[in-house]
C-alpha cells in the first residue's frame, strides 16, 4: 500500500488511443491490483467500480459532481469518480475506501470518524474519509475554518459536519500524516 | 456492569460504514442483474398522444421498453395512509403508467430495461413522446381563488380545521395584536443515497425487493396490494439506508415499477432514481403560506391564536403537512382557530419532510412571538415563560412530561442569553451586524397503532440475537437496540447482535414521526426482559440450581449471571442453567401494545433553540455563528447517537432558514433547480459548531422506557431563532423562507 504523498507524485503517462464506442477491454489498477473490465468507453469510473468490479464502497449520490460521495484517489489526487471515465484511468493508480484499512485495523481517519460519530447514515462517509485523508496530506487542516472550506465538496445531508471536523482535528493532532500506509 | 442504556457506545454498524462495507439497496450482489431507467413526463398536465419506442427497442442491450401500453396494470391502488399506521402506505393515491394522462411533470411514462445502466439510460433518450398539454397549476399564486378547506388531511388522520373558545371576540378585545403572513418555498429531502429498488422474482409468486425505505413492512404491504399478491409472497430487505428525512417514509412507485419490469423481462431488475428524479418521485415539503394572528393583553399573555395555512397539494390527495398541530398547544391560549386551506395543483402528492409541519408552523408562531415581545417591550424568553402552559391547552390534560421551562433555563445559561440588549442593530463587529434570537421547539409524540414486535433468542453460551423489522437509515437504531437488549437480558453489549431491515422479521411500524426507536425499543425491551424472567423462573424451579426456591423477584442478572439481589454470591449463569438442562437456546417474542393516543395526557416533546448570527451590513450575507439547542426527549438510549440526531436536526433548521428552496418554473411546470448543485443544502463551511444538551424528564405514559424521540425535535424552532436573530441584527423582520441575501439588501 502506498502513501497518499507517494501516489500523488507517481508518473502518469497518458496514452491516447481511439477505442469504442462498443465494449472494449479496459485495464485498471485498483487498490494495488490489476483489474480488467469489458466496458464501453462511456462508463464512468464510479460505475466501473460499483457495477463491474464490485467495489461498492464508493457511493453514487448525484452522478453530477455536486455531492462528493464518489470521491476516490487517482494517482494520489482526489477526484470525483462520477465525472471521470474509467477508460481514462488506465495506467493510473486508483485508490478507493476499500484500501484504507490495514487488514482489520482501521485507518486512523476511519477510527476517528467512528469514535467522533462523524456520520449517521454512512452513505457519504467513504467520500468524506477519502477527502479527509487527502486534506491532511495537502496541508489544508490548519484550523476549523480551513477544514470546513476544503471539506465543503463533500455533502453530508445528516449534517455531521462538526463531528467530521472533530475527527480530522483528532488525526491532525495525533500527528497522522494522511498516510494510507500508516 | 453499568447499564448500556444512556452510554455513548459507538455505532455497531459504524465499522462497516467507515470501511465502505455496508450494502445499501443498490449494492446487494444479484446474479443475472439488469438495469432499469425511468423516463419522466416533460409536461405538467395533459396527455400522451403518441409514443415511438422503436429506436429505443433496437438499441444495443435493451431488453424491454415499457409504457402504459404494455406494462401490466397494477391490481389495486391503495389510498394514501401515513406509514406509522402500519399498513400499506403509498405516497399518493395514484399509480402512474396506467393510462395516457399526465398529472404532473416528472410522472413516470416509460421504463427501459437493459443489460447495463449506460445502455438503459441511453435508450431512454430514444423514446419519442408526443403530448397534448393542458394548462397547469404549479404555484399557489396561480390558483389561490380556488382554495378549499378539506374535511380531513394527512391521509384522513387529522381534521382540516379545529377551534376552541371564541377567537373573533378575543381578537376584537385584544390589547395587542400581531397579524403576519409567512411564506415558505418548497423543500426537498435530498438524502445522499438516491432511492433504489432491486427486484428479484424467485418464481411467479415469490418476490424479494431490496429497497431503501424507512419501513420494510410498509413496502411489503403496499407491494402486495399493487401487485395483487399475498404478503407471504413478498420479502422486502433493507440492509442499510443512506438517509431519508421523510423521502423514504412512504412507499413511492419505484419498488413496484422495478417488480413489474423484472416480471416482464424474467430477470432481476435494479432501478435507481437519479438525483433529478429525487425531486419528482418521492414527495416534498409543499409550497405554503401561513397567517398567524396573535391577540394578547398588554402583559403579553396570549388571549387568542388564529393560524391559517394555505398550501398546494396534488390532484389525488388532501395532503398538507400538519403545521398547525404543535403551535396549537405551544402556549396557553383560551381561544384558538386553525384552518388548512388547500389548492390542487399539478404536482406529486407532497409528503413528510423532517419535522413535517412543525418546522414551518413553529417558524410562523415563534417569529410572531418575537414580534409580540418587541411590541410590548418584554424579553422574548420572558414572554414564553408568561405563556407557558402546564397542561395541554387543547384538552386541559396534564403533559405526560414536559421539561420546557428547564430547557429555556439551560439554553439561556449555555448561550449567555440574559443581559441581552433587545434593541435591533445594537451590536456591530466591523462589517458584521450581530444579533441573537430564540424560539421554542415542540414535536408531538405519536403512538403507532399496531402491536410492535421483537424477537430475542439467547444461546447457551450467553450470547443473544435480537430481531425486528426496523431499518437503519442513520438514526442509530441498531446501536440503541443493542443497548436496550443488553440491559434487558443483563449481558454486555458485546454479546448482543441486533438484526433488522427485513419484512421477514417481527413486524414493527415504519420508523417515522420520531417514533421508530421508541416503537421497536419498547418491543425489544419487553422481549428481552421477558426472556430474562423466563430463565429466572426456570432457575428457581430447577432442583440443581443454586437459586432453587428463590423468589423470582429477588433475582437479578448481572453480566449474564442470575444472582440474588441481596446475596450476589448465590446464583448461576444463563449458560450453566441452559447447558445443565439441555437447552440450546431460549426464544421469546415481545409484543408492545402502544397506548391510545389519547391516554389522559398531552404528549409532546419540548425544547429551546437559540442562535447568534452575523449579517454583512452591505452584502446581506447571513452567517450563523453559533447555536444552542436544549431538549427534553425523555429517555436517551445512546448519548452519542442522540446528540448526532439533535445536532443534525439543528443544522437542517439552518438549511431551512437560509438555503433550501426548490424553485418552480411555472412556464413549464417543472422544478428549475433539481440538482445538488442548484438546490442548496448546508455544506461543511455553513455549519457552525452546535451546542446540544438534554434535560432529563421521566415519562411513564408514552412507553415502557419513557422515550419521546430525538429525530425531529432538533429541527423545530431553529429557523425562527435564526430569523429572530436576523431581525435583532438588522432591524428587518423576515416573512419568507429561505432568508436569501436579497431580502437583506
Automatic annotation (TrEMBL), chain B:
Molecular functions per Gene Ontology: iron ion binding; oxidoreductase activity
UniProtKB keywords: Molybdenum, Oxidoreductase
Signal peptide: none
Family annotation (SUPFAM superfamilies): CO dehydrogenase molybdoprotein N-domain-like, Molybdenum cofactor-binding domain
Gene3D superfamilies: Aldehyde oxidase/xanthine dehydrogenase, a/b hammerhead (3.90.1170.50), Aldehyde oxidase/xanthine dehydrogenase, molybdopterin binding domain (3.30.365.10)
Domain Aldehyde oxidase/xanthine dehydrogenase a/b hammerhead: 19-135
InterPro entries: Ald_Oxase/Xan_DH_a/b, Ald_Oxase/Xan_DH_a/b_sf, Ald_Oxase/xanthine_DH-like, AldOxase/xan_DH_MoCoBD1, AldOxase/xan_DH_MoCoBD2, AldOxase/xan_DH_Mopterin-bd_sf
Pfam families: Ald_Xan_dh_C, MoCoBD_1, MoCoBD_2
Database matches in PANTHER family: ALDEHYDE OXIDASE 1-RELATED, XANTHINE DEHYDROGENASE
The name this protein goes by in its record: Xanthine dehydrogenase
Organism in which the protein naturally occurs: Micromonospora acroterricola
Organism placement in taxonomy: Bacteria, Bacillati, Actinomycetota, Actinomycetes, Micromonosporales
